Known about the structure:
The structure holds 2 protein chains of 2 kinds. Chain A is 34% helix and 22% strand. Chain A is α+β, with helices and mostly antiparallel strands. In chain A, the strands form 7 sheets. In chain A, strands 2, 3, 6, 7, 10, 18 and 19 form a 7-stranded mixed β-sheet that branches. A 5-stranded antiparallel β-sheet of chain A has the order 12-11-23-22-21, with helices on both faces. A 3-stranded antiparallel β-sheet of chain A has the order 1-8-9. In chain A, a hairpin with a 5-residue loop joins β18 and β19 (466-467). Chain A is elongated, with a radius of gyration of 37 Å. In chain A, 48% of the residues are buried. The radius of gyration of chain B is 49 Å and the shape is elongated. Among the domains of chain B are: 2-34, no CATH class; 59-116; 118-137 and 153-190, no CATH class. At the A-B interface, β3, α5, α9 and α19 of A face α3 and α4 of B.
Amino acid sequence: MTAAVSRSTRRRAAFAVALVAAVVIVFIVRLVSIQIVQADTLNAASLDKLSMQNPIYGLRGDIVDNDGTVLATTVLRYDVTASPRSVTDFERTGEDGKTVDVTPTQAAAEIAAITGQTPEAVYGALTADPSSNFAYVTQGIDVDAFRAIRDLGIPWLYYESNPVRTYPNGAVGGSVVGFTGAPGENGLEGLAGVEQLDNECLVGTDGLETYERGADGVAIPGTTETAVEAKPGGTAVLTIDSDLQFFAQQTLLDRITEVGAEWGTVVVSEVKTGKLLAVADYPSVDPNNVDATAEADRGSKAFQAPFEPGSTFKALTAASVLDAGLATTQTQVVAPYIYTDANGASTRDSSFHADPLNLTFAGVMQESSNTGTAMLGELLSSEQRYGYIEKFHMTTPSEVGFPAESGGILAPWDEWDDQTNLTTTFGQGVSTTAVQIASLYQTLGNHGVRLPVQLVEGCRQADGTMTDTVEPTGEQIVPDAVATDVVNMLETVVTGGYAKSSLEIPGYRVAAKTGTAQMSDGSGAYSSSYITSVAGLAPAEDPQYVVSVSIAKPVTIDSALAAAPVFQKIMSQVLKQNRVLPSTVPAPEMPTTF
Amino acid sequence: MTNTAGAYMARPRPTLGANALQSAVSSADPAPGLLPGHDLPVAPRIEIVPSRSQKRARPKIAYAAVVVTGVLAIVVTQLLLSVGLSDGAYEISSLQQQQKELDRTNQVLSEQFDTLSSPQNLAASAAALGMVANSTPVYLRLSDGAVLGSPAAAGASAIGGSEIPNSLLSPADAAAAAAAASAEAATAAATAAAQPTSEVASAPPAAPQSADVPWQGALPSPTTR
């Protein structure tokens, strides 16, 4: 009996052991399979469920003016998306604690009330493709609208943020600041103006942060890793003064409306630094709403549109002739109404006079006599004159490097025909930009030293350092004495020229030159339209600021009187704003006739 | 145990010189008090020998206590640590959320600020308040009291503001400015009626340019630190 029991017990025990062993083996196999063989796949799958990637925006940098006023900045806008598949009724608990059922139609109406869409449009977006898992409900809403929609507590809505560009000052400096394209793969890419010019400085690098999250979406401690460091873009600091820029644009606009002109530009620059304080264009784009402006008007004409400057260019001829030592400010010229030179090219004077005028060089400038200027200018050979035009940087774009900036149009001297040879002395047959003319007057005002034209002061990095700054190395174009003589001659334009009353600024000595140039009709001939301009310096005894105004195709006035009041107002504003003291030294004696 | 200690205590101090070697040797001995032939008096070695069970029982409880306490301490510490950690995680998460919300508010406010301080808005508001720009400023030179410039009253030309487009300025802003303008205009008209010479009086007097008596000493000026 004992033996039998013990045998059966042993058998059962053996069976149990075998069973346990089998189970253990199964477990071990499974364990090995999970922990070693499938480990990578399973880990990856789990990480996939747990881990979250969080993009950190490295936002595009600001564009600011010379005192830090923001001209362009990046803000976040929100897209609201939905999963149409899960669009259903949901319950909302009101403030009184009652639960109400909200249907998708009601929800759509609530969203529409916030975004300003029609309820049908929102509902349509939600139900357009019921099997889809993604649909835009609305795009690009601001923070207030986003918060309002979020507070509706609709469970099947999702939110995304996108960086977009905004320009708080609108069209003030709009043509210079430029604009960016829509947010795309490359982020916001500058398409015009400084946005394009300084894209490299402004662009930021988005970062990436990964973490694992628990069931409630909260990051599991210790799992947050920054995969890519975000790097915000630098700040482009302009030399523009936004208040002055506004004043210039407003004054220009008022005058253009008044005289029925087509377009115009104003350039204000600082004589001692070469910095552009204002570059006003009319028409000017509002970068917040680029589509509202015709495509041709979205750039900056001051940089991009060369035009025949006309008489404002005579300052360059005067400087050239004086520098060559072929005349003085008192050189006497008998200026006929019609002058025909040795080559047979001829020109008429700017206004009719039966008898020849007995003018000094200064008088030629004051009267803006074309024949007198041509006679004096032709004391130099074409080659010499071309050399001076080149030396004054009238044939190359400025150092700004503005997108699509023009460097003026002038054929090499050996390709000049006789007429061009003559007319280039008084600014026809040669085209320059408004910025180049401003630079010419800057040179004359700064004792003959030309400074690089500056629009962007530099790129301020996140750590406060400035990079890409311009080293203002001057270039002596003509001697101080020549530059001063030219400025003194230009002063006679303001003290006795035909636009005297429109140019004078009480208390200050002003040196300026008017210009009324016939515009090309685009096919090699002159049209009946004029571009009227004034470029000048103040105070004349120690020039501080250049203002250059051009108004194209005025209807009611076709002389520089169209531009003169703009010059006068803007120059007054510049002097006032920068606290330039009124002149105390009287103007030098400068006879204009003999 | 006591006698061993006594033996140690009774050991002579090592002396310098000739005894140094001996003391070095004795100090290296594992139990110098028990060495036969040592010249120190040896205390009688009598003590109660614990039974085998006693020997076994006593350390058992101590060990168990230490281990259990230790394990408990570790468990409790770990628990507290992970509670703290996940508390921190929730706090971080809520603070991050808070920061996000504050960033949004900051963005809204700075956008508003930038737009309101745009020259278009400022010019419109100034015009609405009845302000005009005077383009003929006058300067008083502190060093000699000279008046520079020719003073003139400002004309009625205000700088318009709405013509330079800015699509960020909503019609609501413009309407508010216009409302303020009409209210201000009414006030200004009332003031003008009461004080017909106000415009003339507002212009600075142009006379003291002759300066027969130049200013002596420093001009009073505010002290700013």
